[in-house]
Design goal:
It is a single chain. With 169 residues, the chain is α/β, with parallel strands linked by helices. Helix content is 51%, strand content 15%. It has eight helices and five strands. Strands 2-1-3-4-5 form a five-stranded parallel beta sheet, sandwiched between helices. Strand 4, helix 7 and strand 5 form a beta-alpha-beta unit. Helix 2 packs across helix 3 and helix 6 packs parallel to helix 7. It is elongated.
Length: 169
């Protein structure tokens, strides 16, 4: 079996049984386990990646909402700096879940906008604050979109989709 066919068969098994082990795949396909491990290590996730950053309490529901659209959604740990997280994850969109702490989100956005490597990555803010002055401050810091909490899942998916279409044509 050539590599392309083997990769296809491995993916079919993983899609049918996400919890299947490499040993079980090797057994079912009658190939060495090391070959299966090598082929799987070459797979790439081609989904668009959304990086959730911030201290808001909605990360779980945001992640679940966006994963229904087949985005690769990653929530970064609080200890990483924004630029370290972006460098490590290479996202297509940064989603700042700020809760009430908008100032920190605005600082992160300004860091990205002044970075020679990451200025182009779109940034969306989700905030508990819905006043006009908060939105204006967010847009002045460079955010591409601002959504107030509680968010509507359909609207959030639509807004994320439009930002990604506009920036990744």
């Amino acid at each position: 079996m050539n590599n392309k066919n083997l990769d296809h068969e491995i993916l079919k098994l993983i899609e049918a049984q996400p919890e299947i082990s490499e040993m079980e795949i090797a057994s079912r396909l009658s190939v060495p386990e090391e070959l299966v491990k090598a082929r799987i290590s070459n797979f790439n996730d081609t989904r668009q990646k959304i990086l959730i950053m911030g201290d808001g309490s909605s990360a779980f529901s945001i992640k679940a909402t966006l994963e229904t659209e087949n985005y690769n959604v990653v929530k970064v740990p609080g200890g990483l700096s924004s630029l370290e997280a972006v460098k490590a994850e290479k996202p297509d969109l940064v989603l700042l879940d700020t809760g009430f702490a908008d100032l920190e989100g605005f600082k992160i956005c300004k860091q990205l906008r002044t970075s020679s490597r990451y200025w182009w990555i779109p940034v969306m803010v989700l905030s508990e604050k819905g006043e006009v002055k908060n939105r204006v401050e967010a847009f002045e810091s460079g955010v591409d979109d601002y959504v107030t909490m509680p968010f509507n899942p359909v609207e959030l998916r639509a807004r994320v989709g439009m930002i990604l279409k506009r920036t990744h044509f």
